[in-house]
Amino acid sequence: MADSRHDENSKPPRVELSIPKQTEAPEDSFLLNPREVKRWAEQLPVANIGETARQVYKTLATFNRIRIPTLVRAEIIELFREPVRYINTNITKHYLNVGFPLSPKSKKAARLATELCNEIAISYKILFLEQVMGNEKNFNQKLVIVAAQRALQYMKQRMFHNLLIYRDYQKGLWREAHYLYAWASQNHVHHIGVKETSKFLWRRKNAQSIEDVYKDMVLIATTSPYRLTQTQLRLLHDKLQEWDKHTEIGLISDMDNHSAGIFYLNLWSDEPPQKTISPAQRNDSRYRAFDLNGVLSRAREEYDDAEWESPAHMEKNPHHLSRSLLTSLIRGWNKSLERKFARNNLHHEMYAIVGLTNLLHLLEQNIESGQEQQQDKGAQSGNANPSSHLTWNDSVFSTLAIASPTNSLGGDSIFAESSSNLASALLGTPMEHEPANLFDAMKRDPNAAFSVLTYNESVEGYCLGWKDSYPMKVRVGDILGIRSPNNPEEFSVAVTRWLKDIEDDQLYLGIQVMASNCSPITLTPGTKASSNRQNQYRCLLLSGSGIDSERQGILTNTRAFELNTIMTMVTEFGEHQIKLTKWVESNNNFIHYHFTYVEQEESRKKSGDPTDDFQDLWNDL
User: Fold this and answer.
1) In 3D, which of 89, 165, 153, 146 has the Cα closest to residue 120?
2) What is the pLDDT of residue 406?
């Protein structure tokens, strides 16, 4: 049985390339003549992207569904490549650097980009199958290698555009990619470079082999793309051709499986690379090991010279990977991203607000509203009848006012009134204006904090469903404020760690709670608070449980400060001198710092207590 199973696993996978059914081409079709197709392409109304896209898509779809001589198809398909590149370059603006869920127009634009790449890939798959499955007398080795490489190239582009909108891998994508690589490897043509020979060139530098393109697909799949921002995904895409040279694909038995940067590929499956496999799968000949330790070494080298991600970094080094991104990549390649805590399928409603600026504004409004209420209470108590005051001169009680038994309560004694009127009198608020619910008075603009639904939760965060009807869009890396169910004035702070757009147009996002409580503060560089608004920076102070519970944390709106400098923090309760000790993480939305209070640090130095420099390490061991 073992031998028969081994023989079965050793067989090459059956042809797993999907192409549409083809019919005879009309005799007068211009798609049978490369010269006419070239003339048509040159006359496309490129100034009108919509019309150009419509013509190219419809013509390309027709081209793939009619029978055309092999060499004619090979010549014509090259003429479609530049128009498709031009269209995709111009329509990506509809779904790049925008919030999610996408608008219907943006979704259609993204779908068009993936379908154009898919149609080009189909053309090359047709050429490949005609060579592999056709008459051996007409076999053209050069053509079949080019067709396989180009098909993989457009599968990669299709996958990339899909990942940019956080959609799952298309069904059959990995099965076809694995098959083309396995075929090339078995026939020892996977290392042959394919040059760009089309007249419409956009990449002349290096020839890429079938294995190079396949490695690019595998490499980007190992980066946990649903956890990356669109900007980070594009930077990685541009980095692939540099990094794929430092990766290897081979038999599992030939690789150091105890090394960190190893992923596994099932060439007979429709699955992306995975970090772990079972012992039985290690002996399965259908599996290959993907070693990216060379890339891991390069990433560590770049980390030393990289800067933390911020708008200033993007302006200074727009094509360099940030320290934030490299940290995420190195962690993901070193070990699988396993959950620390179990998920509980709990569906409940909670209120959220998106964006650090919006959260700061809401918290500041709450504080101002509370202060106004206190002033109103003080003003009402100060308007009492002067004759009803008992005053002791020259004593601490000189400003104490006591309600008279004969005041406006309307009776001879305060005890003659009901308990409700008594409470109204003592609180200084007429009972008819008292809300039925204590928290009703604390409710804010419904457009600021809105209801969202959780699908599951764990100790550190939630999985949320995000509907098109929600008033705010969301992106990976956005800060969310989650309103406390017990006190509408309090918010916990969370960060969006991943997005996933399911095929039924349902968007899911995973958020990690950074702190269970927060408050707005103002930071001023230096040892004194400044009255100059240009030197004041609005920030968020993190407190309570969460991933930042054992260190004091601050979130800033991408304002970068020098570490280990003294700053003045102004809260609603007073001023404190602090020192920023660590840049924890950052993106284009926020910067997360750790800090210490200067007075605590000085007292600790005097007492001789050691500092715990390994606090961030304990959870990762």
Assistant:
1) 153
2) 32
Residues 37 and 181 in one domain: yes
439 or 376, greater pLDDT: 376
- The residue segments making up the domain with residue 115 are 10-221
Length of the chain: 621
Q: How many domains is the chain partitioned into structurally?
A: 3
Cβ partners under 8 Å of residue 59, min gap 6: 31, 40
How does strand 566-571 pair with strand 517-525? Answer: antiparallel
Q: Residue 159 in contact with residue 217, Cβ under 8 Å?
A: yes
Tell me, what amino acid is at 327? Answer: T
Instruction: Report DSSP state, residue 581.
Output: E
User: What pLDDT score does 419 carry?
Assistant: 37
Q: What is the rounded average pLDDT of the residues 387-396?
A: 34
Write the pLDDT tens digit of every residue in 514-533.
999 999 999 999 888 877 77
Note whether 501 and 523 are same-domain residues: no
Contact 130, 163 (CB under 8 A): no
Block residue for tokens 């904090």: 449
DSSP output for 172-241: THHHHHHHHHHHHHHTT-TT-EE---SSS-S--S--EEHHHHHHHHHHHHTT-GGGS-HHHHHHHHHHHH
98 and 25 in one domain?
yes
Q: Per-residue pLDDT for 594 more than 90?
A: yes
pLDDT for 336: 67
Of the ranges 173-187, 194-208, 556-570, 599-613, the best mean pLDDT one: 173-187
Half-sphere exposure of 386 (CA within 13 A, CB side): 0
pLDDT, average across residues 232-247: 93
CATH number at residue 592: 2.40.10
Helix (H, G, I), strand (E, B), or coil: what is residue 69? coil
Does 397 map to a domain? Answer: no
Cα separation, 252 vs 283, in Å, equals 8
What residues contact residue 466 under an 8 Å CB cut-off, 6+ apart? 100, 101, 452, 474, 507, 508, 509
CATH of the domain at 355: 2.40.10.220
- pLDDT at position 396 is 33
Q: Are residues 80 and 203 in the same domain?
A: yes
Could you say which DSSP state residue 435 is in? -
Are 184 and 202 part of one and the same domain?
yes
Give the pLDDT of residue 2.
44
Q: pLDDT (tens digit, 9 = 90+) per residue, 60-101?
A: 999 999 999 999 999 999 999 999 999 999 999 999 999 999
User: Do 152 and 107 fall into the same domain?
Assistant: yes
Contact 153, 208 (CB under 8 A): yes
Domain end call among 514, 537, 559:
514
Same domain, 602 and 481: no
- Considering only CA atoms, which of 131, 124, 41, 135 is closest in space to residue 87? 41
